[in-house]
Fold:
Amino acid sequence: MICLLALIVFGVLGIFSATHRIIAKEALDCVFRRVTLRKCTTGLDKRLKSQITGKLMRSHPKTAKTVYKNFEIISWFFTLVLIWSLIQSGISGYNYAIYGNCNGKTNGEEFCVFDPAGKGKFSTLASNYSGPVVFPDIDDDPSIGPKDAPVKIIEFGCFRCPYTKKAEETMKQVLDYYGEDILFVYRDFALSENHPHADVHAEAVNCALDQEKYWEFKNYMFETQTTMESHTVEGMKKLGEEFGLDTQKFNKCIDDRDYKEEVENDLIAGIKAGVYGTPTFFINNKTIVGPRDFKTFKKIIDEELEEWD
Amino acid sequence: MGLNINKIREDFDILKKKINNKPITYLDSACVSLKPRQVVEKINSYYNEFTACGGRSMHRFGNRVTDEVEKSRGVIKKFINSKKENEIIFTRNSTEGLNIVTKSLELKKGDKIIQTDKEHNSSLLPCLVLKENGVLHEIVKSNDDNTFNLENFENKMDKSVKLVSVVHTSNLDGVTNPVKEIIKIAHDHNALVLLDSAQSVPHKDIDVKNLDVDFMAFSGHKMLGSSGTGILYGKEHLLNGFKPFLIGGETVTDSTYNSYTLEKIPHRFEAGLQNYAGIMGLGEAAKYLMRIGKSNIEKHETNLNKRITEKLIDDVKIIGPEDSSLRGGVFNFNIEKTDPHELALMLDESENVMIRSGAHCVHSWYNAHNLDGSARATLYFYNTEEEVDRFVEAVKKVSKLLL
Structure:
């Protein structure tokens, strides 16, 4: 069994080193012989077994004896662990290719080795929706840019999600760079399960729309996201006052929950569109999940513009 | 006079080496010996001071090389006490020497070769090849303790025997065959004798005149010289009758588009550019061994082997006679139910004790005895009692783990 383990380990190392490639070839020969019920003649199994136990003997003779006596079992254990790891790596690779995150759509905030900078991280929503996917429209949500722009970007974001906040800078870059070529729509995807009062935040920002301060207050909300002392209704009201909104009008809008339905509709629209985390961007018919860099957006937008031309 | 081992070991830089903060114990000298500083310096001098072609170029470097090579030949002549320097042919190793003789004798169908049952592949295989041409090949079975059976040998001898090609000291078990008697019996039957002396020349006083041997091959790398060096000794009148099978540069005095004139011996057998540095190193190695004295070397190795044998006799199965005095510097053994390769690898990995494992190029003997191989520790004059004790302790420690 040690030969199979060696084949996998040295096979991977062999990609980078000729010395390991020779051992991998030996291991392959050994595995082939064992599979065809013949004796391994390369001596690789003995060599590895003796070298490992010999090294252990220097400092831990008793452990060395145990390892030597149970070498086949230990080899099996490590081989299975290795195979399991490889399968997990394969799944992670698949997730990364499909969702932009190794952990799939259910653990968007976990570390991903393929994405150490965390550009693919997102806040997750555990959805039970199993109906047909309905591509989202711009609805009556606030937008920037001409309605007939060749590229429509619909963002589903959450004001309490750190990754949506992270994406703000990139979106600003995108809008500055492409100008009239883009119609940008922000739709709420309030992840109240993960972030308490996320729905209150979304409703509060919509209330600013009544005072034609939506985009400014949205920016202010993200700017103060990490420093906000409280994320409660009272906290929102205090924030509106600090920002300079008409507090009477603003507080009433919050208390009456004027935009409750609007925020809920956005969430449902997002779920139906297959959104599983924030931020999610629909760029015409293509999707980006997580706070990706400008280059990622640019690549897709340029392709869309080229197609439109 | 005994050996001053500590002083001798000063000449071997490699022995000061430590691995994982532990000293090394090199017990594989039957395969390749370590090299003293004097030999290494001599080899380096060719590359650092007078790199050139020998026997061709007339400039001072070329002349120096020619001179040094012939000096080495002179040293080797003295080393084995041959009659003349032209009886000394530089080769790459024992294998080449053994092949030269076996092939050059031009044996015919019906001619017979006699060998022992412990021949190294380098001695056995050139003879087996001749069987394809109808040459007969017979093996002299050893005694049960692996010593040579002179009676069996005599019984094999008849008029058809043209060559007795035997190992002098066996690399399998260290047993030295009674070659003086073997040569006498062979000559009485008008057969020639070729000795594989790879394991005897580095350890024993050899006098080819006294032995009256016809041919003798040995390697430089087992006697402190560099790898890629060896010697074939042959009696002058016999070598003169040989047609060299490898010819080219330096083997002829003249050539036309249709013919060539061979050089005199030994040069007709030394085709192409030679390993000058190695040859010079080999001369230096022979001088070094002569300074120490082969009888001192043999005595020292026998004492060390006795020490190992006494301490391990109950734990291992020795290949060859139990009497250590018959096994020179070779301690070849197996431990029941353990794999010799695993044993050797673990000795090295855990205790820095380096021995050899396997069939030691004597596959024929192992096959005949239904053995896969064995572990072999081989001694030389630079080994110490402390080292052999370390080896003994390590074998005991590792065998406990393996059993």
Observations:
- Chain A touches chain B through 15 residues (CB under 8 Å).
- Chain A has twelve helices and seven strands.
